[in-house]
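Structure tokens please, single chain.
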Amino acid sequence: MKLTFLSVGKDRSGLFSPGVDEYLSRLSHTAKVAVVELPESKRSGVQAKEEEGEALLKKLGPKDTLVALDERGKLLSSVDFAKWLGGQQNTGRDVAFVIGGDEGLSEAVRKKAGLVLSLSPMTLPHRLARLVLAEQVYRAFSILRGEPYHKA
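Here you go.
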């Protein structure tokens, strides 16, 4: 299984990248991992959202199940997310997690998604969302393997 983390923009603060790198390094022992950072649109508002959405969709592979991160998405427990991810692993499909830019995700991205996932009903900074997502994906694989990282 290949896991792709697609996002718009970079962590210019340097606060979150070390944590993301740590969890992705841990994940690389379980699955192929790729990080794709796309530039932010020079436009604003709806135009930026649409332009960034098109760029994100172009990066998807034919075997990718798209998971769109959105605060209006489905809230899953860590165990339920692990079950979902395990089901994807059993299908032989890859998973592409998509985090939009400052304007959010376009409707085209949301419609293409096999899962629209919320990490929280609160709005998170996009770089923090990537860190939380990386940790939760690592936790999901730990749950699937029965490792003690996740303690219910």
